[in-house]
Amino acid sequence: MIPRLVRPTSVDPLHASFLERLLEAGFKGEIETRASSRTVYATDNSIYQVEPAAILFPRDADDLKLTACILDEEAFRHLTVAPRGGGTGTNGQSLTDGIVIDCSRHMNRILEIDPVRRTARVEAGVVKDQLNRALKAYGLFFAPELSTSNRATIGGMISTDACGQGSCLYGKTSNHVLGLRVVLTDGSDFWSRPLENAELAELCARDDRIGEVHRVVERITREKQERIADVFPKLNRYMTGYDLAHVRRQDGLFDLNAVLCGSEGTLALIAEAELNLLPLPAEVALINIHYSDFNAALEDARNLVTLGVASVETVDEKVLGLARDDIVWSAISRFFPADDDREANGINIVEVVADDARVLENKIAEVTAMLEAGPGANRLGFSVARGHADAEAIWTMRKRAVGLLGNVEGAVRPVPFVEDTAVPPEHLAAYIREFRDLLDGTGVSYGMFGHVDAGVLHVRPALDPIRPDHTALVRRISDDVVALTRKYGGVLWGEHGKGVRSEYVPAFFGDLYPCLQEIKRVFDPENRLNPGKIASGNDRPLLKIDEVPLRGDFDRVLGSDIRAAFDNAAYCNGNGACFDFDETSPMCPSYKATGDRRMSPKGRAALMREWLRLLAEKGIDPRREVDRSRDATGLWQLPRRFFNSVAPVNADDFSHEVKAAMDTCLACKACAGQCPVKVSVPSFRSKFLEIYHGRYLRPLKDPLVASIETMLPLMVRVRPLYNLFAGTAPGKALMRMTGLTALPRLPAVSLQKEARRLGVAIACAEDLTRLTPEKLSRTVVFVPDVFTAHFDPDVALAAIRLARKLGYEPMLAAPHINGKALHVHGFLARFEKAARDTSAYLQGLADLSVALVGLDPSMTLAFRSEYRALPGAPLKADVALPQEWLANALAEKPALIADESASYTLMLHCTERTNAPAAVGQWKAVFRQLGINLAIAETGCCGMAGTFGHETRNRKLSEQLYALSWKPQLAGRQEDDVLMVTGYSCRSQVKMLDAVSLEHPLQVIERLVDGNRSSFDS
Questions:
Q1: What is the DSSP letter of 697?
Q2: Is pTM beyond 0.85 here?
């Protein structure tokens, strides 16, 4: 039995006193001090781990001012704070042992859009893609592009002066900041905007902190003008933060924002920003050029840049290979074909934009003419993607490159610490050759991609952070890369900020570094804003890359075996793909609804990792605890678990905090499909629950849910009594007492009875062996799950009728237990037993080469994930999704003429959308064969997710999720629209909340085929 795991849940007296004072003074936001929250905020997308004392979630700028004013009180002047945006920094920029200030939860409002002036005013927590979605209606966009645009906050972008693809055309974030509303450590609140000389003089005359700040920065930039020009490199990616070279603009204005942008929260707290906007390019195309060698791609990139294109991005063979196995590949694979059976070992993606189609085609022709003039540079070929949709799909692959580098097997994985160097573009190819030699000399592998037009290289050496010999390489490689970068006239931090790498700042800034220190002192006299980063205003030293705690220092106690046993939880690299703000994205529902980072795959992985570490520190291997708990089953265990559950001494068990985060997981598996590192929360959640409930009592709902597949066939026999219970107020009230909402009523139609009436047999391997190979090839066995079979049998009956119309002999799989509910709730011993029995049966049918077709996507995909992971006897057979079988079956038939009488829209189950990425194309192909142009609804999770939405504790969250993207889809439905839903749980949610019965696409297809029977007759 696992022991009680205790972590401090209260902060030290000084921080506690500050937080109490803050609340007394009227702080309107939220304050978090729980161990689980501090654990989640201890990491970002870097190799470091520093746990904060507390986290503040301010509601507005007044909360920021109040926080600064309380901090300025004498009693609290030794406390430190660090602002945090999306939390995806690769260099520990927002990590602190002080107080984190997170504006992303509440300060995420778009305050004003002025399409005439082309400006927007936003709060610091607004996400870049959120802003651009709002701007699209005006034909405008906020230009700086970056790979984390679906979770990067504007405040975070400003703090690191972020940029990415297209920076040569559009510049960096600082190039588009018109004004910043900032709060200083004394509570001063002002808008920093470019100033005329008279305005500057007026501000400098003030006797407050604001006046002092302007006086110091004005004096330094005036007195050190020549030295600044010598030290700052003439690069597109110049030294971000404290950017003295651009305070005095070419138009003569004094712009303090040049110092603030890129300052990583070391100078002020950003409350709001006024941003410059640009018109959306009307036309766009990407020319994708394939090479046999990565160096050849780099060399050729210089030629492409001279053509005046919008951007040139390079990706190496490692990243390209990982992308081929990623969820996005099916949408772009046609643009990256194998050339003469040779795989590309590097690609250049060349972007061209224009305001009209004719100009765009001329630009494309100019580039392709150069490519066709001679093969050169080991080019294998090229493709052209026209239009915003295809271009965005390819850029999505490129954006996922950083995360994809972490999607490798084993403990040695690419990690960030020298990943964003920048050198003059003309030196990039030579620089990268030396860079590769440097890494090859250490014996590490790596992946590379970059913004070659800007001279920026992204590279992550592969290390195992728990190995001392590997952690020593962080220092060795960093020092060598710094020397190499300076040799070529570049900078170490071309894109992702300085953070922990700040120890190299004095070397790069040289004799200007004391000026940075003076600026730090005037903004932040006590060095309390994100201390140790960029510049130190007092005797507190800058952080060093090998003195800040590494994640590997904490993981060393785990070892490789335990890390590998819990489904990549320990390997989450914090890239934050699960923080996607978009309501129509399946990833991650519980985070979207709560805004709580604990309730995300990244958060849950961090908590699981910490829980495993606490166990390991006590010498406990959780895998052995599973074996012990399975051996010690029975009713006699209930008193012990009951006592543990009510004993006050167990109230502070850290396991409860982990459990609370796991309880909001919908087990939709979007993370398993969409996370670049393939962190599968449902998988390690099940293992956690099994171990947790070896100590603590289960709620009554758990055994009820676990037994539903066994009980439903019995309930069918007493259907009138069951429906009376399920449909009456007393029955519903009793169900709520057990923790479940009302169950659906059973229909009058019985699948088994109707199947017998239709002459459909139950598939039996012994009977099938008597069939000829020809008959076997025309036999299809439908594998209905218990929910579809008993609550929605019309779907299975439609499949049977459709199969016959297509010339197949349909059969039904014998009643079986799929076990997904068992797995979700951590009844893993029972799941494994049931799954082995079902696997043996299905494998026996598959060995006879009959087609096996599931009906519900979530239950069917369990055969490909949970069943494939079964210890000892994984299922090898493929149970096809309906569209996978239909795509082949309909391909044998003539295509029908397009039906223009109605519109057809399909809403996919989120597990299907994320874990079977080819599903969209397959469903479209099926309907195209029927003469219909199928639309796929852009929706996230419906909120039901199997049994999740039937639990009373989850009902509010479930309805909240439904309202995000499903309810608007239903509300916008026209009278002649045919709206279909693949998931049984999704159809149940629609019926429960909107009182609408939607059909499975099989039901619609069966009618369409019936109406065109003559066209399908052989």
A1: P
A2: yes
